[in-house]
Design brief:
Mean pLDDT: 96
Structural class: alpha+beta
Number of strands: 9
Shape: globular
Number of domains: 1
Number of helices: 11
Order of helices and strands: HHEHHEHHEEHHEHEEHEEH
Strand order of the largest sheet: 3-4-2-1-5-9-8
Low-confidence stretches: none
């Protein structure tokens, strides 16, 4: 934690304080809760990411916590833009990148809290090499068990299982572009999203293989507008507040999907 975080915090943001703030926001002990988060936005947390995970677990003591654990640095290097790599590197990267391992592959761009939670002994992580999720709690196996290659964030993915369980989404310290549930809405909406070629290294029959598959042409460019419209239109299904120092929003995932599906059909 940086000196700046110490200066910005009036007191340590302890696991108990995180749990109390989550309860005040409306989180229930038995929730199925999909969490998008920023550790630095919370303030100075004892134990850093582990302290934040413990706060989440105290608030959802009887339910299931789910986090995105995407590992898109295993994707096809020909699609990389941030940064791109020279074309002569494509073949060597495809040949040498280790196979995705749920127990070992680090996340990319998901934040320290998600990466910490996926490493817990009782966490379960899904098998998708690019768009996995990790879960802790009684429904963890049900949420993560089936994750088809060609349906990373669609109607057969863990996101849809969270919906079927009546789950809720918690966002703190991050914007609507991080909300993967809106990628599920893309797939549910009657719009021409298109599909693109993808690839990743996985283990097949005990051996590493580079596999190719198709995936939706994901687009988050209008997620901020969609999310803001949802909060305005469905105040009964959303709650806003703070967790530690972070602005937070909690909402019903099925309600978001219903709204966003219609919104995307009209606005895309």
């Amino acid at each position: 934690m940086s000196e700046e975080l110490v200066a910005e915090s009036d007191a340590p943001v302890t696991p108990d304080r995180i749990a109390d703030d989550l309860r005040a926001l409306g989180v229930e002990t038995d929730d199925t809760l999909f969490v998008h988060s920023s550790l630095s936005a919370l303030g100075w947390v004892p134990g850093r990411a582990q302290g934040a995970v413990e706060g989440l677990r105290r608030a959802v003591s009887e339910g299931t916590i789910v986090v995105p654990t995407h590992s898109t640095d295993l994707s096809d290097p020909s699609e990389w833009e941030n940064p791109p790599v020279p074309e002569p590197w494509y073949g060597p990267i495809r040949a040498a990148t280790p196979a995705y391992r749920p127990d070992a592959t680090p996340t990319r761009g998901m934040g320290a809290i998600a990466d910490c939670l996926r490493s817990y002994d009782d966490a379960v992580r899904s098998a998708h090499p690019l768009y996995s999720v990790a879960a802790l709690g009684p429904d963890a196996d049900r949420i993560t068990n089936d994750h088809p290659l060609e349906d990373g964030m669609g109607p057969e993915s863990p996101l849809a299982t969270v919906r079927n369980l009546g789950g809720r989404v918690l966002m703190f310290g991050c914007d609507w572009g991080r909300n993967t549930s809106l990628h599920l809405a893309e797939q549910l909406a009657d719009i021409d999203a298109g599909r693109v070629e993808a690839g990743a290294p996985i283990t097949v029959d005990g051996r590493r293989e580079w596999v190719t598959f198709t995936e939706p042409d994901y687009d988050d460019s209008d997620f901020a507008a969609c999310g803001e419209a949802f909060v305005e239109a469905r105040p009964e299904d959303t709650a806003t507040g703070t967790v530690g120092n972070a602005d937070a929003v909690l909402f019903d995932q099925p309600s978001l999907l219903e709204f966003a599906t219609e919104w995307l059909e009209v606005n895309r």
